[in-house]
Design brief:
The structure holds two protein chains of two kinds.
Chain A lengths: L36 H15 L7 E5 L3 H4 L9 E4 L5 H11 L4 E7 H5 L3 H10 L3 E7 L2 E2 L5 E2 L22 H7 L4 E6 L3 H13 L3 E7 L15 H7 E3 L1 E6 L14 E5 L5 E6 L9 H13 L3 E8 L6 H4 L12 H4 L3 H10 L2
Helix pairs in contact in A: 1-7, 3-5
Chain B lengths: L2 E2 L1 E9 L4 H14 L4 E6 L8 E9 L10 E6 L5 H6 L1 E10 L14 E5 L1 H8 L3 H20 L3 H11 L7 H18 L6 E2 L10 E4 H11 L4 E4 L6 H14 L11 E4 L3 H13 L4 E5 L1 H17 L3 E7 L16 H5 L9 E3 L4 H18 L2 E7 H5 L1 E4 L18 H6 L30 E3 L13 H21 L4 E3 L7 E6 L3 H13 L5 E5 L1 E2 L3 H8 L3 E6 L5 H10 L6 E5 L8 H12 L5
Parallel strand pairs in B: 1-8, 2-5, 5-6, 6-7, 10-11, 10-12, 12-13, 13-15, 14-15, 19-20, 19-22, 22-23
Antiparallel strand pairs in B: 2-4, 3-4, 9-16, 14-21, 18-20
Helix pairs in contact in B: 1-4, 3-4, 4-6, 5-6, 7-8, 7-12, 9-10, 16-19
Amino acid sequence: MTFLKPKFGHPRLPKNEHGYTVKDYEGAISTLCAGCGHDSISAAIVEACFDLNIEPHRVAKLSGIGCSSKTPTYFLSNSHGFNSVHGRMPSVATGANLANRNLIYIGVSGDGDSASIGMGQYVHAIRRNLNITYIVMNNGVYGLTKGQDSATADCGSVAKHGVPTAFQAIDMCGLAIELGATFVGQSFSGDKKQMIPLIKAAISHPGFALLNIISPCVTFNNNAGSTKSYDYAREHNAALSKIDFVPVGKEITTDYDHTKVNVVELHDGSKIKLNKLSPEWNPHDRLSIVTALHEARQRQEILTGLLYIDEQSVELNDLINSTTVPLNQLTEQDLCPGSAVLEQINAGYR
Amino acid sequence: MSRINDFVVRFANVNGTGSASANFLFAKAVFRMGIPVSAKNIFPSNIQGLPTWYEVRVSEKGYLARKEGIDMMVSVNPQSFKQDIASVKTGGYFMYDCTKPLHDHFLRDDIHFIGIPMMEISNREFSDPRQRQLFKNIIYVGALAAFLNIELNVIEQLFHEQFKGKEKLITPNVKALNLGFEYAKAHFDCPLEFRLERRDLVGDAIMIDGNTAAGLGAVYGGATVVAWYPITPSTSLVSAFESYAKKLRVDKETGKNNFSIVQAEDELAAIGMVIGAGWNGARSFTATSGPGVSLMSEFLGLAYYAEIPAVLVNVQRAGPSTGMPTRTQQADLISCAYASHGDTKHVLLIPADPAECFEMTADAFDYAEVLQTPIIVMSDLDIGMNDHITAPLHWDDNKKYNRGKVLNADQLESLPNWGRYRDVDDDGIPYRTYPGTHPLLGSYFTRGSSHDEDAKYSEDAATYVRIVDRLIKKFNTARQIIPRPQLYQKQQQSKIGMLFFGSTMHAAEEALDILRDNGTPVDAIRLKAFPFHEDVKSFIDGHEKLFVIEQNRDAQMRTLLINELEINPSKLIKLLNYDGTPMTADYILKHIHEYSFQPTN
């Protein structure tokens, strides 16, 4: 069932530049378990889109199958949504993006959806630098099928079923960086302050923007011994930086220490202000983040924040030299060469 | 007895030695002399070193099917000498490279052996090793010109066209051609009793393969998004689309492409991209073969249930599993008609030649968008990869793309109760919107899970049944708009009938002619699409027994007919060829004859 939320809100709710209130970015009432990390991520998406002044209908939200993939119903009800097949959201999003490059694409997936059944599509979407905000709601467990380990469950981690995971975990961020991802962020669903600027930056990034968000499963993987529980994530969260997103046209007003603060200007003119907490790490240096991720793993820490960004990112449509006009707006005149040309072609086969 | 323009020549080569272009040169020269010709490439799934054959039938009567019985074998592959010699008809000719002598045990006394020292001549006249290899092939074409009366200037003209921009290659090619020609003239009686004579029988026909025609059809049909994964025998279809799109679809001002092609990581991703693009309002397609269809099945079910346009060209090859990747079959009928789990049915278009590959692929985009469902074009390796004489490709400039029921912002505002899956027009086809159409109206959630008329998730029993029953209604609408079958009868004249489709058309039409000439005319029907038009049912009802001709082991079309039209199975006689080679009229006639003489119980 989908429960409809009441549409009315407080008459003095603040409006953004397009005259929308935050209510206009909400979706249906969630049917996920009470306390599910995914709902916090949905709420962060709502707030980020409201703040960014995105018109909801300019967004297409896509997902695969699983608890995470249900969430697009719970945000942006004025956007078209596509709940595709298990592990195959990246391909559907690729086709959609090729058809209309002018929309904003938000892809939602989970650890089962992206790290197992959809691993092939995940890595190839990264290779192609598909222009999408790709959110992995990562809880290390299969929720809808009642609690099996996923491929991101850490070796030795124990979910509700009580048996420690025997196999090595797939690190979605490390993998993305190896594959040449142009934007990699990691966060925790309990840290809204970090998630919202990260989502804004990811949406503003032209290319594949991965947000791997640890999002605990309260029902099957929130117990002692799990490395994807709320308690564990809070205790082991190691933020690389404090992140602020500065929209286009807004100046960075506060004074900052240039040795500690890194300002990244995005393609559309917006900026990310990173207050570095780790001196060795440089968000433009792939190698430094690979090292940082490995070291954090040894320390049993979850590295969060914007891990890597390539400001020179060139997205798929430009990599293959596609027209700037959305392909779905081209007409017979643009597409059909006509009978005279066909007659010439026929002559070539005589 | 002299036979003019009626014989079969088979070439036996080693693949990867440049023989394909020499053999094509021969077939094209016959075509240029105004004589109907058909060529079948019988090749291995391999790049270099294995036996490959090219079979050319010349037919004054215009029959384009393959014909059994080889009048002349041109053999330059010692690997396959034994079987090649055995396959020549009694009284036929075996032309071979006699640079090395033929073993006595190969000899047959009922055929003629023609030794041409191809390699010796080539080595003597040319110095570059690659040229020696290539010109050996041209030398045998020259010899054939002498034996069969091919006009040398026709071949020379083809050289000029082939080597436009590389003119220095023309002279050595002409030299090689003449070397073969002169050797044959000097050492043998030329021409043979079967040979060519110029005619004017091909009219304005063209010689093209079905994959090129289908790729062009996709350009004309307005495809903008192409996602694919390489697989024989469909690869050349996407290559053709790409090469024509690069010529015809690049914006002159910006230099940017009015199309996007992505080579996907696998067939699952390929069809996923096609569906994503179709959902977002771009005309999109993929091309694949049987193994690809298996991988695409889950997505095809999604597109069926969520009602998303998609076009898939299936260039069928011999299955099951990897099967014979370079041999032809029509063995994906059931797997395509009912692709995916649950109750699914898909619209199939079944072209019989390259002209129909063009037309049906172009039209498939209209059907897909009008019907909001996947359309599968069922080509096969024989049509797709062999050069066929076919009607010139035709396009009507007055034709407008039919984008189907898509609502724009103004229309949405005037409709108070729009719902994505509401059957407003009572034809089973709902109205859709593209993402981004209107700030507040027209958004909906597309899903492969059960949904109601407003696209909301629902597990309500009655709602589920309403939606899947409407899909049947839509399928019945499809039945009315997709291509009708072709009837071969002026009036009902026979008790038995013949039913065929796709690439067996030429063989079946030839068989019909022979039956008619023998005084036993048979009515026939050629299927062009699935679901079946009512004419198919009435044709079957009007005949006592019907031969269902198909290229698969399990009589899949017969099964579809029984299943969809509730035909009594005993009426439908299987006439099956599934060895991977194209059908022949002789094969059809033999089986009809055998059946007719079977004692009835």
